[in-house]
Amino acid sequence: MAMTTRGRSPRHTYLGDTSPARTARDLFETLPPTPGFRAEVIDGNLIMSPVGTPEHSWSATLLSYALQPVVMERKWRAHVGGVNVCIDGPRDSLIPDFVLAPADCPRRGTLELLSSGLIMVTEVVSPGSARVDRDDKPRIYAAGGVPIMLLVDPIAASPAVTVLSDPQDGAYQIVTRVQMGKPLRIPSPVDFDLDTSIFL
Hints:
Blueprint lengths: L23 H7 L6 E6 L2 E6 L3 H21 L1 E5 L3 E3 L6 E2 L3 E5 L4 E2 L3 E3 L5 E5 L5 H14 L4 E6 L6 E9 L2 E9 L3 E4 L5 E4 L5
Parallel strand pairs: 4-8, 9-10
Antiparallel strand pairs: 1-2, 3-6, 4-5, 6-9, 7-8, 10-11, 11-12, 13-14
């Protein structure tokens, strides 16, 4: 019997499933719904973190609004939070704050978009996620073949927005950082000049 709540899918089959979880991924796949927390598998570890503040999610929503013309023109899909991304290879499962994907993005099962099929992911840095967002996730997304990562960092000593692109050998080769409020070019395939003052 599967339990669901607030849109969570029946991946959570913890009732009646008595086999022990052997890996963090196994445990992740049997977790009950975790209201108020985000469950991710990062570098083979199950990480539970509180969901962001309203300001945190608003930043991702503002990005979605800004990219709306591009999304509509190219018939892409923009997802603000709540979408699991399976990293090709290690099968880590992350929940970016914003995901840009083609309509036919490949999936792992029904719930997770595959990282190699994405166009762009965005992480909005918060105090509880700063190290993971700044240090771990760029490496993980690059290794998973995500073409572009946008890092919105309102809590840095000097708030900034960074675009990382051209993933090769587990690292992004091109990194462009601007002070929040300055324009930032998001490279191909997005090809968009982002006015980062939307995050101020």
